[in-house]
Amino acid sequence: MAEKILVTGGAGYIGSHCVLELLQAGYVPVVIDNFHNAIRGTSPIPGRAVPDSINPSPPCIPPGSEELPESLRRVQEIAHRPVLFQELDITDEAALQELFRKHRFSAVMHFAGLKAVGESVQKPLEYYRVNLTGTIRLLETMKAHGVRNIVFSSSATVYGDPKYLPLDEKHPVGGCTNPYGKSKFFIEEMIRDLCKAERDWNAVLLRYFNPIGAHESGMIGEDPQGIPNNLMPYVAQVAVGRREFLSVFGNDYKTDDGTGVRDYIHVVDLAKGHIAALKKLKENCGCKIYNLGTGTGYSVLQMVRAMEKASGREIKYQITARREGDVASCYADPALAEQELGWKAAFGLDKMCEDLWRWQVQNPTGFSKN
Prior knowledge:
It is built from eleven helices and 13 strands. The protein is of the alpha/beta class. The protein has helices at 13-24, 70-79, 93-102, 117-122, 124-144, 179-197, 231-239, 267-281, 300-311, 335-341, 349-362, and strands at 4-8, 28-33, 84-87, 107-110, 149-155, 202-208, 210-212, 246-249, 261-266, 287-292, 297-299, 317-320, 329-330. The protein is 36% helix and 16% strand. The radius of gyration is 20 Å and the shape is globular. The longest helix is centred in the middle third of the chain and has 21 residues, at 124-144. The termini are far apart.
């Protein structure tokens, strides 16, 4: 029997790419999402025939393909396999209990949560309510139903302002500069304490650096709602003509060109890291923590130039004041993940930008039609 994996927040950018990798690796993902950051599916993609081997509205989905998020409808198309999906909010304890009664999960991949750094500064209570309360309810439900394996979507923001570079997993954590990062840190602490208290729990906490790019088909990618909070979706929208210019926050950092340096990782590499993490859980590993990054830092202006190369278009930008909470440089030491998970990022900067550009050109307004 193929293993059933619960994927929370699986209609989002990283979640949908992980659902695809799970399908292709022979797992049965069961996805829950509340559509906070996902678009409802409506109809087949214009000009693209649905393969005969796919039933666009498989029996495991409530009648009507519009019930399925557009990202997952496309995942089905790429994978030639149906996706089990239920609209559900992780803060809804009764709905979670019902879901766990219906399915036997071998593990949970937990992506669901609010994730915009700037917004978290404006709405801290909302971030703590959704991210912390939602995770507590999820863990309690897992415990009640004997599911003791979890892969958690954490973030390099838990490191705060780097004391040294590259960042390895031994670097101090908790000096977070915003409520989003703090919520990730608190969840890590909750899971670590749980694994310490109850030895039959296994958890892999994955600290992401900066995921970019898209699936090479151009069918799924990042579709930020409103103004993008992250650099590369914004750059891509400038290149495609949706936005006039990019604001570069500060050019007086102690870096080669004065702009901030970050570790960017292809989203497909990141998704493959989750499959490696699932396999690690099988070893009764207790609580393990890994950085998922490439180990290479690129500046904002290097990223702009790489995207100009991929798109063949000039990307206009303006230098503005530094943004509060930003650090000069942040990049990973990913050696532990290679050593213990057998995982290493395979794709370089050119591939990240080419795949991002293909997604942007094929989907100028993202998953929505307007």
